[in-house]
User: Fold this.
Amino acid sequence: MISTDFVRKMSRYNEWQNKNLYNAADALSDEVRKRECGAFFNSIHGTLNHLLWGDQIWMSRFAGTPKPVGGIKESAARIEDWSDLKREREAFDRTIIDWAEKLDPHWLEGDLKYFSGAAGREMSLPKSILVTHFFNHQTHHRGQVHCMLTQNGQKPGDTDLPFMR
Assistant:
């Protein structure tokens, strides 16, 4: 269904778009970044926190990286300081890219068994579907952040995959 080329391209897209949004959010005050906006995870800061947490959960399943503390409900408030959140995001984007670059195409075959906190049970699904979900989840929440940034007067750069540098 998907290839290692797809995974590598999407890992680079993830990093590119995170830089895009974090750069736009840098122009806002901490108060504005943390203001309740009615999003799933409340604010720009909360949504970016959740997104990092989600990436860390999936990578703990895919690559055995450390599992983040807490669950979905706590994910929006994990990292309070903006500079710390940015630093962890940048470092973890590198982790994702490194994993993608070394990914064996055979790893994408078969199922992955894991415990889903969201479903509250053990799950077993094709790895290709789960990796696709991983990248889709990123895009979904980055779209929410993009909207909140725009509502606060910021204009993030291009988001279209064909325009990736």
